[in-house]
Amino acid sequence: MGARQDRKRAADPRVLRSRSAVVEAARTLFLRDGYAGTTVEEIAALAGLAKRTVYNVYADKDARFREIVDDIIDRAEAFARELPGELAADVTAEELPAALHRLGERLARAILHADVIALRRLLIGEARAFPELAREYFARAPGRVLDALTDRFEALTRAGVLCAPEPRQAAEQLAYLLIGAPLDRALLAGDLPEEAEIDAHARAGVETFLMRFGRGRRDD
Predict the structure, then answer these.
(1) Range(s) of the domain holding residue 48
(2) 220, part of any domain
(3) Are residues 73 and 43 part of one domain?
């Protein structure tokens, strides 16, 4: 009987609205103020709910924090999983520059998004208390992108479209060329570039990458 009542309560529209309000409020505050800087009272106030209601939704602050971060990581992972499709395995040498420019701009815009920067700053700030979350984020988002680019660059090198004998290094260098300096400024100074600046930086990064790894490149 108790389990049935719990299921019925969980499906209650009022409970669902409360849960949604708590999740949104906690997400906003954690990303803005960090874990230590956010209190249950503040979450309740922003959600427009009683403190007791917040505790009914989540057992404790740690549980809320982990769930919020897990949800954001899930979204980042979904993007990382789709990204390799921007660079087809059978792309030709003639098609490669345009394909890399499309991929580069999409990747740079995604990483230099306000929510992603807020998440990265949060994970860095809470790395001592929650080291496993930072590792999980890297493995499921940036790490997944690098793995996918490494595999694709290895295949394109075998096909003679790229000249990247160390594809992992090539993947890491492309990633830094696309967003390295703007990402540092965003993380350390909170300065988010405009979309036009992001695109211009990404285009320049791709051109530099192609000069080094494009077909016909030979080391002296």
Answers:
(1) 2-58
(2) no
(3) no
> In this structure, are residues 87 and 167 in contact, taking their beta carbons and an 8 Å threshold?
no
Do 74 and 93 share a domain, yes or no? yes
CB 54 within 8 A of CB 44: yes
Domain boundary among 58, 86, 105: 58
pLDDT, tens digit, 9 for 90 and up, residues 113-155? 998 899 899 999 888 888 998 999 999 889 989 999 999 999 9
pLDDT at site 12 = 62
What pTM does this model have? 0.81
Which ranges of the chain have pLDDT less than 70?
1-12, 59, 84, 216-220
Cα 208 to Cα 43, 138, 147, distances in angstroms: 46, 25, 21
Six token digits for residue 167:
């594809």
Residue 158: how many CB atoms within 10 A of its CB?
10
